Amino acid sequence: MPPTFYSLCRTFAITAILLPLAAQPKVGVVEVYGVRKLPKDRIVKTIEAGPGSALPRSKGEVEEKLVALDGVALAQMEAFCCEDGRVILYVGIQERGMPLFEYRPTPTEDVFLPAEVSQAYAEFTAALGRAAAAGDLAEDLTAGHSLMRNPDCRAIQERFSSFGTTYLDHYRAVLSRSADPEQRAMAAYLIGYAADKKAVIDDLQAGLRDPAPEVRLTAARALRAIAVLARDKSLGIQIRATWFVEMLNSVVLADRIEGPRTLNLMFDNLSEGTLAQIRERAIPALLEMARWTHLPHALPPYLLLGRVAGIAETEMSAEWEAGKREEMLARIEKSLLPKKK
Questions:
Q1: pTM of the full predicted structure?
Q2: Do 194 and 117 fall into the same domain?
Q3: Helices marked H in the chain — which ranges?
Q4: Whether residue 136 is found in the same domain as residue 197
Q5: Last residue in a domain, options 43, 64, 95
Q6: Which of 172, 206, 239 marks a domain boundary?
Q7: What is the DSSP letter of 114?
Q8: Based on the domain organization, do 217 and 260 belong to the same domain?
Q9: 43, 48, 49, 50 alpha-carbon torsion, rounded to 10°
């Protein structure tokens, strides 16, 4: 089976690589997120890994130990490459009673994409793999969907556009009802090629709450492309920010990365309702992410915090470049978080 579009996106587009545990690379940094009541050092002690140590051999066993801690509802550990030649070990914690990103129920039906569509998608992922290996991943989103510069990929994507009217009902059925997450992820990608972008926004918004991270990421990318088209205000395309804000509290690292990136890229002006939602539910999450060691992951939440606090991006960027990130975050934290009594 060819690699899924989701796996290729993670490997080549956001340069996030889940390392093979058998290789036992060294840990450079441990980033713990989601803790509000538990001390972080207790989490680090439980995973038995730290700077300079080998990566834990069993992801599942470590996550089980974390969930066994009092007050922990969910846990996820993921290794990304690299910071100064060593892996970053991200440890996500969902404490009981804290804001939760809730998924929709897992679909259970045996619903599949038509053979013609599945074959074209398999050809596309193979072509995408070759393009990625050649560093040829440039894409144009102005049509409201991806059209890549690579000729092999683009030719297949143009076929996806021609499928749109014929198979739209199939895409909807698979995305909402199929028990197979790979089928749902494919449907989330393909439905973005529908001619009427307004007609599929609700389908993709539902995909943002899918229980499978590959479906959520693919739906987010499809919506981001539609948002580029929506810059033409005469089209009347509206995309809600609600579920992207909820992603900021997810225990899954991919959601944490995608949420602030998308909010910054898609929404030139955050509505008062969105700003209120972020202030109410996501400031602690954004602050911890903005302090991450890996700068490509820390910058989007840092910039988003500036927007919520009403600080000009030029000032935020200047402080970042001057190495004054922590001073700026302390200022924002003081203005956005209520004083502790």
A1: 0.85
A2: yes
A3: 5-8, 40-47, 59-67, 115-133, 151-177, 181-191, 201-207, 213-229, 242-246, 253-266, 272-281, 283-290, 295-309, 313-321, 325-336
A4: yes
A5: 95
A6: 239
A7: -
A8: no
A9: 70
Does a structural domain hold residue 53? Answer: yes
Q: Give the Cα separation of 59 and 331 in Å (integer).
A: 37
- Number of Cβ atoms within 10 Å of the Cβ of 225: 22
Name the helix (H) or strand (E) containing 87: strand 86-95
Could you tell me the CATH number of the domain that includes residue 79? 3.10.20.310
Closest of 170, 157, 121, 146 to residue 5, by C-alpha = 121
Q: Which residue range(s) make up the domain with 315?
A: 255-341
Along the 341 residues of the chain, how does pLDDT read in single tens digits? Answer: 333 433 333 333 333 334 344 456 789 999 999 999 999 999 999 999 999 999 888 999 999 999 999 999 999 999 998 888 889 999 999 999 998 899 999 999 999 999 999 999 999 999 999 999 999 999 999 999 999 999 999 999 999 999 988 999 999 999 999 999 999 999 999 999 999 999 999 999 999 999 999 999 999 999 999 999 998 999 999 999 999 999 999 999 999 999 999 999 888 888 999 999 999 999 999 999 999 999 999 999 999 999 999 999 999 999 999 999 999 999 999 999 876 55
